[in-house]
Amino acid sequence: MAMRDVIPMCLCLFLATGAGQASGLEPGSPLMAPKRPAAEKESPRAPELSLARFLESPGREPARVKLWLRHNTEARGLEEGAREFLERLIQLSADSPREAIFEHERVTLDAEALATDDEILALADARAALLARQGKLDPDFQVLTGELPPPWNPDGALDREALAGLVFARTGRAAPLPPEVDRLLADLAALDRRLGMVEDKLLPVAEEALGAAVLGLGSGEASMMEVVHRLHFLKHQQRRRLDLRVQRELLLMEVARRAGCAVEALPWAPAPEAG
Fold first, then answer.
1. Most buried of 64, 98, 99, 117, CB within 10 angstroms?
2. Which residues are registered as beta bridge partners of 158?
3. Whole-angstrom Cα distance, residue 84 to residue 76?
4. How far apart are CA 135 and CA 71, in angstroms?
5. pTM
């Protein structure tokens, strides 16, 4: 070993020894540099509760497949509605004087229409691929026999006491709800708050904003780009509501699985009295 390498090494050892002696600790004592306790890691979310994994592959359970098909159908309907709206804007720009609509706005409208077409095609391809894995074909995008989804489960909170009774009936042990069920109920309550924000506040605001922009376009107070931006915002909120609805159904499926009952048998708490 070269001398220039030995000197720094000895210096480091000397400093480490001096620090230990100054503190009254023997060199090498674990008290000199106690290891920091490892932070407890939260248990990862179960794969069956991940919306991204569910949309990628729902598995073969009939209820999950029906839910996936419902998400796909409703998402495609939202995209097709946006495509029809864009088509009307494109037609409006074609009928307007050249100086009334900027050229870059016309180009943007065409690009938006193409992007929406691509999203519709991607959703259709995903549906065809899923049905092919199930051994089914549906080129006309009809709801197949037995695949008509039930309505969304009711809004509101689950009855914790009745749910504990279901768990007791399954396990034979009278005890509070298991921690994992408590976490699911907390997730469900948080999701309900987000869903309420989207449905009660963001969606009405988005619809009103788009309507105001369309009226402003006719009076010259709004540009075509403002209309497109507000269409984007509305569609985003619509897709977000759909995603939250599907995520809520997945949570309810998991609660029912852990309670040992069907989703339809989950007990709902009475709705609070108005006023």
1. 64
2. 268
3. 12
4. 20
5. 0.78
